[in-house]
Design a protein that fits this description.
CATH topology of the largest domain: Rossmann fold
Function: Methylates ribosomal protein L11.
InterPro entries: Ribosomal_L11_MeTrfase_PrmA (IPR050078), Ribosomal_PrmA_MeTrfase (IPR004498), SAM-dependent_MTases_sf (IPR029063)
CATH superfamily of the largest domain: Vaccinia Virus protein VP39
Number of domains: 2
Main location: cytoplasm
Largest sheet: 8 strands, mixed
Subcellular location: Cytoplasm
EC number: 2.1.1.-
Number of strands: 15
Shape: globular
């Protein structure tokens, strides 16, 4: 059947409430969030300075939906500023699930780590293979921030070590750390759905007994690890810098991503008092900040 898609521009702060409103009040069949700087769906006109937010929302509707009514409902909600950016598009009828599956391929990180969807043949059976299907929680390896963190983990000797995945999402980094030799991994996330996704994916990979997951308020007191990885966003990395630093053992390793190249130095400065920062690594405008906590 045919569809229409409504694209809206929002911010990190209001994107999820707007998504909930679109699902509950306007009849959206699905809602997807995109980073407006990484994959923009609104291109500025020549000479125009973009003054919109940092998150684009894609809402899918049955083709018979009155798009004008939906836009009026969005305006009436007062959740977006007057004159907010939006587009309404018709989508041709396709087997969307099959097309999506065909475009998701095994990916290699470093010398020995592969992330593989379950419906694809494993390219190197003797390599370290993490089986992971895209789902509700963030993290499949396709985004540069995840890729940067996976490559960093692959470069470490994790044998017998404890790792904390701060903002674990789908569990991709946690599972990769276990497969790379970590003795135990602790996943922390503010989203209960992420914790469920992490446990489910760990179960599929046969490593569930080595993974513990917690909401921040439930994590054990005095929690520390040999290695901490935090693939979140620049704002939380700044705001939670004290907490994140406290999770790293003296002489332990720390890596952070979810940071644009324009933000990296500022974020790194929040950690330099306790962490010897490595040269910042950049990939497609996204950065990884890593280093060793001073003893």
């Amino acid at each position: 059947m045919p569809w229409i898609q409504i694209k809206l521009n929002a911010t990190n702060e209001n994107a999820e409430p707007i998504g909930d409103m679109l699902m509950e009040e306007t009849g959206a069949l699905s809602v997807t969030f995109l980073d407006a700087q990484d994959t923009p769906v609104f291109e500025p006109l020549p000479g125009e300075t973009r003054l919109w937010g940092d998150t684009d929302i894609l809402a899918l509707y049955d083709a018979e939906t009155d798009s004008n009514r939906v836009i009026e409902q969005i305006k009436a909600s007062n959740m977006l500023a007057e004159g907010f950016a939006y587009k309404v598009e018709q989508l041709e009828d396709k087997d969307w699930e099959r097309e999506w599956m065909e475009n998701f391929h095994p990916m290699k990180f470093g010398e020995r780590l592969w992330i593989c969807p379950s419906w694809r043949e494993v390219p190197e059976p003797d390599a370290i293979n993490v089986m992971l299907d895209p789902g509700l929680a963030f993290g499949t390896g396709t985004h540069p921030t995840t890729s940067l963190c996976l490559e960093w983990l692959e470069s470490l000797d994790l044998s017998g070590k404890t790792v904390i995945d701060f903002g674990c999402g789908s569990g991709i980094l946690a599972i990769a750390a276990i497969k790379l030799g970590a003795e135990k991994v602790i996943g922390i996330d503010i989203d209960p759905q992420a914790l469920l996704a992490s446990k489910d994916n760990a179960q599929r990979n046969g490593v569930a007994d080595q993974l513990e997951v917690y909401l921040p308020q439930d994590q054990p007191e005095g929690l520390v690890a040999d290695v901490v990885v935090a693939n979140i966003l620049a704002g939380p990395l700044r705001e939670l810098s004290g907490i994140i630093k406290s999770l790293v053992k003296p002489n332990g390793e720390l890596a952070m991503s979810g940071v644009l190249d324009t933000q990296a130095e500022d974020v790194a400065n929040y950690y330099r008092d306790e962490v010897q920062i490595d040269p910042i690594v950049e990939q497609n405008e996204w950065c990884r900040i890593s280093g060793r906590k001073q003893g």
